[in-house]
Amino acid sequence: MRLSAIRAVLNVKKFGPEDQGARQGLCAGAYVLIFFAMSIIVARLWYLQIIEGETNRKKAEDNRLRVVRLQPPRGKILDRNGRLLAGVKPCFNVCIVRKDVRNMEELLGRLLPLLNEPEGPVRVRLKNSLQQPSYLPAVIKRDADWDEISRIEARLPELSGVVIEVTPGRKYPYGSIAPHLLGYIGELSQADIDANRFPGARPGDLVGKYGVEARFQPQLAGIKGERKLEVDSRMMLRRVVSEVPPVAGDDIYLTIDADLQMAAEDGLGDEVGAVVALEPDTGRILAMASTPKFDPEAFARGVTTEEWKVLNDPLYRPMRNKAIQEAYAPGSTFKIIMGAAALQEHVVDESTRFFCNGSFKLGRRTFRCWDWRGHGQTDIYKAIVQSCDVYFYNVGLKLGVDRIGKYARGFGLGQRTGIDLPGEQRGLIPTREWKLKRFHEPWQKGETLNISIGQGFVLTTPIQMASVIAAVANGGDIYEPRFVEKIKGPDASEIQHFTPVKKGHIPVSERNLGIVKNALKGVVQDKRGTARRCRIKGIEVAGKTGTAQVIRQARRRQSEKMAWKYRDHAWFVAYAPADAPQIAVAVLIEHGGHGGSAAAPVARMVIERWFQLMAPKPVIKRQINADAIPVISKPGFIKAKNV
Amino acid sequence: MFDKRYIENFDWWLFFSVLGIMAIGFINLNSASAATGYHFQYKQLQWYTVGLAVMFLVMCFDYHVIPSIALHIWVGIVILLVLVLFIGKSVGGSQRWLSLGFMRLQPSELAKICIVMVLSSWFYKDEREQYRIRDLGVPMLLTLIPAVLIHRQPDLGTSLLLIALFASIVYVAGIRWTSVIIVFSGVMAAMPLVWKYLKPYQRKRIESFLNPESDPFGAGYHVIQSKIAVGSGQFTGMGYMKGSQAQLKFLPEVHTDFAFSVWSEEWGFVGDMVLLSLFTILLVRGIAIAQDSKEPFGTYLAFGITAMIFWQMVVNLGMVMGLLPVVGVPLPLVSYGGSSVLTTMIGIGLLLNVRARRFMFH
Prior knowledge:
The complex is a heterodimer of chains A (643) and B (362).
Chain A: H1 3-10, H2 17-51, H3 53-64, E1 65-70, E2 77-78, E3 84-97, H4 104-111, H5 119-128, E4 137-141, H6 146-155, E5 162-171, H7 179-182, E6 185-187, H8 190-194, E7 206-208, H9 211-215, H10 217-221, E8 225-231, E9 237-244, E10 251-254, H11 258-268, E11 273-278, E12 285-291, H12 296-301, H13 305-311, H14 322-325, H15 335-344, E13 354-356, E14 359-362, E15 365-368, E16 376-378, H16 380-385, H17 389-410, H18 432-439, H19 445-452, H20 462-474, E17 477-479, E18 484-488, E19 494-497, E20 502-505, H21 510-525, E21 542-548, E22 569-576, E23 583-589, H22 595-614, H23 619-628, H24 635-642
Parallel strand pairs in A: 2-10
Antiparallel strand pairs in A: 1-8, 2-3, 3-4, 3-5, 6-7, 8-9, 10-18, 11-12, 11-23, 13-16, 14-15, 17-20, 18-19, 21-22, 22-23
Chain B: H1 4-8, H2 12-36, H3 40-60, H4 66-87, E1 89-91, E2 94-99, E3 104-105, H5 107-126, H6 137-151, H7 156-173, H8 177-197, H9 200-210, H10 221-232, H11 244-247, H12 259-292, H13 296-320, H14 338-356
Antiparallel strand pairs in B: 1-2, 2-3
């Protein structure tokens, strides 16, 4: 084939020499452009894959991985007999996975009408959740009821990003029982997060905030599990990547008895006050009640502003555990210590008598006995049984403030009992130094007289007085009050058992304590005793009443005639049976009036209940009888039979 | 007819780089197909075979016949583009395909190689040393008519690509610097007008390109997911068929526009360097062929074809890496598509043709 021929046919033009140079230059420009473009592409790849590679891979994982939290069931709280006080129930939470929401406002517009929840709290929870990764579900409504769940479930396809999560919540089979001891759980707050109070907890988690729930939060909480799912772009599940099952929390067995606790709470009724019942030989708390109570379920749900107002009412203080967090003048219950101190210091003996004509003169001042008629010749037995103030004015003056203080502290007053709950009050046993420091004034003799009958500066908590009466009952040992018996793991294995902790012994001889105890028996059993109302058929009870003035009165007036908040506080401390005590009780009723009339009946209910519980029950025999006897529907007959 | 100098002048570097890119394209489509559930990879393999056959066929005739049939080519492609607008098949809001029974032809793809041939022919015949704007009326018209027709489909990417090809060939044909400056400033001034003329979805794409995070579920979604896919490849990749972005369908259009994202995710920086090296060899050889041609038509043709591959690569990679707005331009030989493979292989055939016939003037 001849090339020249083709060239002729196609009329091919050749570059002239001058064109060659220009073409070389233009092509060199093209090389530069290719090199430049490739450099930018490589640089961009380097940036995306090497510099930002880790971030991008994380984003890819956020795309495909969905983490489902597996909440462990919270540990149970049980009483000494294994009865459930706080258990677990399924709780349905409405959550939002922010990542899957296209338009949050639009979604809220659709979701809010389906919820029985105001908009404000929902938005707050949503805002709090901004700190966690957007693929984690954020709880916006906790423990939704069936109506809400079924409404949302039906519309779930139009609510992209909304999921319903089932988590374990608290249930209280006994309702609000011993709430001050059990405490409550509530949603993790922003303040908790900032202070890192609960490591490992996420917004929306429920954490123990008070009482046993707070104290044993780490044990109760258990360990969270996690299920990692792989999804595709349409949120279809591809596979389960990994699963770590949750570990249930440990169960806390308390020393309290549910029945006795209910008796104590029923006994207090609508009164404001506290009851502490101890096992004298060990310091175990059998019941600890404080009124008014609160409802722990309200906290898991979220407390409204109005509810907060009621809970923090300054007069009734429902949130305070009055058994340990409030200190009151002990009134005449302090005479137990005064009597023991006087005997021990040989200020008096069994037969020493003082004459009571209803009042006592110190210089120009007159100190009255509670009974204006006077008690006549009074020895220690009569002084305790009838609670004669004049006798103890005399004793107090002879002992002096220093020796009174020494014995009070020896009984464990003026210091914390060591109960393992936050906020316990110390109370107050005044001394000369304290007076000087606090008021810049020297101690007055009149003040010694005041503290001799448990008034003035002396302050004690109900748990302290329970500890005092328990020590008297058991022969003088002071135990640390305990409310936890044992902790068991989810597999029912015992993890920890709490043994009694003896803190000390009162500085009183057995003989002298015997004299006091004999008198305490008389308080209840003697026909002139101040606590006759606490008598129980078949059980010998020993105790001491107390009436603590709230305001200084120029003249004694009847409590019932004063406004409630000026009335006296009523005390009663007791143990039973008097000779081999099994239970020691302290009762305080705020503004209840006289100890004998207001507090002693409550103590009687508690003690009575305790011996009912302890008594062996002829269960089988009664059942057989019930079958044999035809059912009689006449109520009068049954009532008569019961009596 | 067959001269052994054809074989001596066969550009093996170019040929093997093309085979290398095809191999990567097949391997990658195998993974992308697994993600979509359709067997694109085997159809693509058929197109590679057809493409190689077409390449050899194109090599066999003397490329100098092209100027004499350039007008026919132009009229033919314009007719096809008009037909698309009337009887074309619509997919995803764009009417781009003509059904031929055994295949669906995408005339806008063929328009790329056609416009290269037509413009090369025009400049070859016009044979001026340097061009001013007023000399460019005819070639501008030759470009704009198909470009506007393609824009009507709508397919902004391809119509802009035609304009880039026009600019590239004008560049190699020789243009006065003053004219470049005038055109450039004219284009800048016309920008607001062009913006007004764009369709809402095109505007949205450009807006989302400027700020993709503003609408993560809407227009910006593709770019965000593609950047995540590319980036999560890191240095050595997630592993073949293990790219979660692609396999779990977070990545859109894995077999066509975003094929490179799949490759990047699964093979990482190392794999990207291999693919880019092959493209660099291809482009450098293309320019070398233009440089070595002894006559202007060969230069224009080779330069235009190289520009066609170059611009498609740059726009596609820029798009998947979030450097350019999302416009539907395939990555030559890697993205799935018969028309695209054919167009590229015709171009490769012509490049080899120009290379093989440079001895004609010795």
